[in-house]
Design brief:
It is a single chain. This protein is mainly beta. The chain has a single domain, classed as Thiol Ester Dehydrase, Chain A. Helices cover 14% and strands 41% of the residues. The protein has two helices and ten strands. The strands form two sheets. An eight-stranded mixed beta sheet has the order 1-4-5-6-8-9-10-7. The protein has a two-stranded antiparallel ribbon with strand order 2-3.
Length: 179
């Protein structure tokens, strides 16, 4: 287990940079094996400013006993995510659920392997998510093959009731072995 609370240095276009420290929300724990990718730098907005702009944040990830990845996060909708009545727009649900599934898949991949594209995604909204309420995000890998990954993600309210869910199929890019 690795405790996470600060961002680590990372490479961007061949130069070493230090990521801006992200605000830790509670205790963040990632369980990653030696052969799995360290995704610590992607905690928070997942590397996509739109996630934090609408009120989302990833705060934990890992790999289960079957080498399938997962991610957890929080969503407190901001005004940008909502219509004039304070209800979160369906497209915002889709963005967050897609990002959660991608993060979960990437957490299960090794080395420089990564998701390449969302091939197909289905999103269902069961109840409204409202401005300034707290919700929980969760993404999980269902099946991982050489070229394709299948995942699902959910947004739940404080009572644990399902607000929205998505399933998706993703293209996986496998890095060429270094000789």
């Amino acid at each position: 287990m690795t405790a996470i609370g600060i961002a680590y240095p990372f490479l961007v276009r061949g130069k070493s940079h230090r990521a801006k420290p992200r605000r830790a929300v509670g205790t963040i724990v990632a369980d990653v094996g030696d052969d799995k990718k360290n995704m610590d730098r992607w905690l928070g907005d997942g590397g996509m400013p739109i996630i934090s702009a609408v009120g989302g944040s990833f705060n934990g990830y890992g790999v289960d006993g079957e080498d399938l990845g997962w991610v957890t996060g929080d969503f407190v909708p901001l005004v940008l995510a909502c219509n004039p009545h304070g209800s979160v727009q369906a497209g915002v649900h889709s963005v967050l659920l897609d990002a959660a599934m991608n993060f979960a898949i990437n957490s299960a991949l090794q080395g420089r392997d990564r998701t390449n594209a969302t091939i197909e995604m289905t999103t269902e909204l069961m109840r409204p998510a409202m401005l300034d309420q707290k919700y929980t995000l969760r993404g999980e890998v269902v099946r991982l093959t050489r070229q394709i990954a299948y995942a699902e993600a959910t947004i739940s309210n404080a009572e644990g009731k399902l607000v929205s869910r998505a399933t998706g199929t993703f293209l996986v890019h496998r890095a060429e072995p270094v000789s």
